[in-house]
Amino acid sequence: MSPTRYLHGFGNEFESEALPGALPMGQNSPQRCPYGLYAEQLSGSAFTAPSHLNKRSWLYRIRPSVLHVRNPKDIEHSHWKTAPCRDGEAPLGQLRWGASEIPDDAGSFIEGMRTIVTAGDCSLRVGLAAHLYLAGQSMHDEYFYNADGELLIVPQFGDLRIFTEFGLIECSPGEICVVPRGVKFRVELSAGPSRGYVCENYGAPFTLPYRGVIGANGLANPRDFFSPTAAFEDKEKPCRLSVKWGGRFYRCDLDHSPLDVVAWHGNYAPYKYDLRKFCPVGAVLFDHPDPSIFTVLTSPSDESGVGNVDFAIFPPRWQVAEHTFRPPWYHLNIMSEFMGLIYGRYDAKPSGFEPGGMSLHNAMLPHGPDAEAFEQASEADLGPVKIDDALAFMFESRLPLYPTSFAMSLGTLHQDYAECWSDLRRNFTGNGP
Ligand SMILES: O=C(O)Cc1cc(O)ccc1O
Ligand SMILES: [Fe+2]
């Protein structure tokens, strides 16, 4: 099998054709398209959006999408929730979950979606949902698209082959994939049962953060983002397309595959990124910097500089700060923090936070290193130390994140999470007044 080919760059004006000459030259909408294809525009922004925010692609396909989205019938998805959703009675406090097992009877990537938190309002195009996926079956003649938001997929266990209208993306733990709103796809599990996290972003599409004084290079570099090359299925057999729209699910029965795009061009396309290519900057003399220095992607909100959701990672890096408590400080944050661990150990929680697990530190709820991490870091020898082979991430939002009833009923919920701080002793050495 030849290696999957990709187009390199972030948000470029790409073009790709699976058959020679399939892409019309010099215009988008010729009277007759090559090979008898239909031309279709997929708009990810308003036609009138300023040019740096304008996103659309032209798809040249065997049938137009009006023949895919036909006679939609209501279907249920009992575990994929949409904001606003307040079905979970969460007590006030920090929450943490261990890793969930993938059940033996787990369904597809779509069926296996389990919403953990929601924020904002999908109809207002504000907020997000964070999901866990527990998948056991490949999607062969089943397809899906989401009108409610884009999907940032963060595999934690198992490899995914994501067949999209734009072509194939292969995505393994350590990598991420973003499927834009409205893009049809199916997911095969190439290494068996799979688990991971998904951020469903209802707001502005993810983009690279401004680097400010860091300059023109570093963090996630644009050339390390890969979009697929055109590939199509010419499949005339019963298929099923499910659609998520306005928090509800619909099913369309088709007699062909909707992944029938033979050529495409434009700047609105799925992409993948290997998080191990992230080029971190950090404290080179003293103190612990704000974690925003590790932002990979941001979905901006209307509030200047404040993310609807930021996707940040805690990548392998050298720690060299002098006379410094090196793990995260104790803090309360107006932003809300949902975290996951892809592999390794997280320095603020060396034991309790396990790969595949999750934590939720909501707006203005205090958190920070557990007692074990505090003791270690207060005594540690401050030579250069490498945090190696560890990869945690955070979905951080300006909005409060509401856990679902499913999340609150998970057997993996740590009932005693807050106990991780109870051994923080009074160390005060001063005298009373
Ligand atoms: O709470 C956390 O573990 C995430 C986090 C990490 C960090 O280095 C600084 C602030 C922060 O919220
Ligand atoms: Fe935090």
TrEMBL record:
Q: Where is the Homogentisate 1,2-dioxygenase C-terminal domain?
A: 276-428
Q: Name one GO molecular function term.
A: homogentisate 1,2-dioxygenase activity
Kindly give the Gene3D superfamilies that the UniProt entry links to this protein: Jelly Rolls
Which controlled-vocabulary keywords does the entry list? Dioxygenase, Iron, Metal-binding, Oxidoreductase
Q: Where does the Homogentisate 1,2-dioxygenase N-terminal domain lie?
A: 5-275
State its Enzyme Commission number(s): 1.13.11.5
- Is Flavoprotein included in the keywords of this UniProt record? no
Cofactor section: Fe cation
Q: Which InterPro entries match?
A: HgmA_C, HgmA_N, Homogentis_dOase, RmlC-like_jellyroll, RmlC_Cupin_sf
> Superkingdom of the source?
Bacteria
Keyword Cell membrane listed: no
Pfam families for the chain = HgmA_C, HgmA_N
Q: Which CDD domains match?
A: cupin_HGO_N
Question: Which protein family is named in the record?
Answer: Belongs to the homogentisate dioxygenase family.
User: What protein is this chain from?
Assistant: Homogentisate 1,2-dioxygenase
Q: Which organism does this sequence originate in?
A: Methylocystis rosea
